[in-house]
Design a protein that fits this description.
Elements (H helix, E strand, L loop, with lengths): L5 E7 L2 E7 L1 H13 L4 H11 L6 H14 L1
Antiparallel strand pairs: 1-2
């Protein structure tokens, strides 16, 4: 397992953006999208819309993943 964040591109509402997450979070993010039967870009857009302005997208994704597995 690598602790260094890996930068990947996502498309949110037709616009490309880069997000840096650790590989463990990328795997969990993909697994959640698959479990919800939705593309990872759609899940990212959902998280982006709900995050407000206080958190960056990468942080919001990490918190979403944590909350998802706490349920």
């Amino acid at each position: 397992m690598t602790a260094r964040p890996q930068k990947r591109s996502l498309t949110l509402h037709g616009h490309r953006t880069s997000v840096s997450l650790e590989e463990t979070f990328w795997k969990a993010f993909r697994d959640i999208a698959k479990a919800r039967d939705m593309p990872i870009n759609a899940l990212a857009a959902e998280i982006d819309e709900a995050r407000g302005t206080d958190a960056g997208l990468a942080s919001a994704i990490r918190v979403y993943i944590l909350d998802y597995y706490r349920r």
